[in-house]
Amino acid sequence: MTQRHWGALLAAACAVGGPLGCGSGDDANSEADAAGTDTETDVGADGGGDGGDTDTGDDRITLVVAAADWSGTGGGVYAVDPETYEVTDLGVATGTDAVVRCQGENAFVLDRYFPTPPDATENRLVHLAGPDLAVQGELALGLYANLHGAVMYGTHVYVTAFGSGMLDRVDTTTEPYGLAETIDLTAFAAGKDDDGNPDPGPVAIAGDRLFVGLGHEKEYKATPFATIAVYDPVNGSLVDMDDGLNGVQGIEVEGTHIFDNALVVRGARLLFNASGDSSWAGGYDDGAIDAVDLASGQDLGPLVTETEASGNIFSWTFVADDRLWAVVNRPDTGDGASDALVDIDLAADPPSVTVVHEAAADSLWHLAATPGGDKVFLADRTADAETLRVFDTASRSPITEIELPAPANSQCFVGQAI
Asked: Does some domain include residue 70?
């Protein structure tokens, strides 16, 4: 782990204003000045790797859900009131695989394979904002882009293209939205990816730095690399994290590749899912949720390992400083593989894990917590179910089930009510 430039990163984060990177321990991923909003929000790559925390209070939030039927009939985007559980169709039809990322009062729908196979011609970004979460603009970014992460800085949205190894900068001031720049990340594949693509996935922002998690993935199998590329949106350039080596270097951290569903700035830490092999490749005990200290650049080691969680950690969200909830894929121990929603107490040593809900393998998907951490919303795709399960985190008990027009694929909170 190199420590070059970490002092500058921290200074930049503190200079924006607010607690980010200044050791407060508060959640802060995107800053108001950078995003053009009045809220602070954790931005996970899937909207489920973090709490979606805002400073607005639970009375001014909305859950945005991308729902999609993978069988080929497509899906849509919906708003859910976290108190009344009323569902509102936002009028955005999607293809068979769409996800949503939230930041402040913005929701970014990454619509993959639009309109639907076999007629799909595009991956597209759809930007929702305003009191009715109306479409502000959209842009097609290519059929094979395989969009994964999105974050806004100023008037531009930065979108990772897992399929092409690029970071796309989208200008939101034009009508229609325009592709202002394609930032090539393929140099990070050197010596690590045979196909020349480092597989950019989750993206997060701290101060005036963008952090991009690189998967270095090969057919769902882990590689012995975990890299975070750093980009300076002010100067429009990648940041070299180690001038002792040739070329622009990223942050090399311990562990296996960074999974594509979370890269989170939480207080003075950068958290990520170094997941190892996916459950589809038999990886149930070779990964962890890991952390890097933004002030020192030191790898803080795992918050919780997959061995401690008793399965492959898929999606996760904080409900308190020392508690997170996660979906884990568990191996076949005689009765078949299974999924579980678990409550992990990080204050215990080793972390203690309590099973909250169980389901068949590959049934439980992404989850999101309210800003106060009192409720968790879980996407349950059991036998193509069209259900969001809601849990009370204090009692670990179910509250209700919300029926949607299509199975939930991804969800996150925006800092406003509609």
From this structure: yes
Closest CA to 365 of 377, 351, 373, 353: 377
For the chain, the domain total comes to 1
Check if the beta carbon of residue 308 is closer than 8 Å to that of residue 353: yes
Which residues constitute the domain of residue 372?
6-414
Tell me the per-residue pLDDT of 251-286, one tens digit each, with 9 for 90 and over. Answer: 887 666 676 567 888 888 989 887 665 544 455 566
Record the pTM: 0.84
Q: Where residue 187 sits, what CATH number does that domain have?
A: 2.130.10.10
Closest CA to 26 of 7, 36, 13, 37: 13
Q: How far is CA 81 from CA 97, 167, 224, 402, 416, in A?
A: 23, 33, 42, 11, 10
Give pLDDT tens digits for 46-92: 333 333 333 444 568 999 999 988 777 789 999 999 999 999 999 99
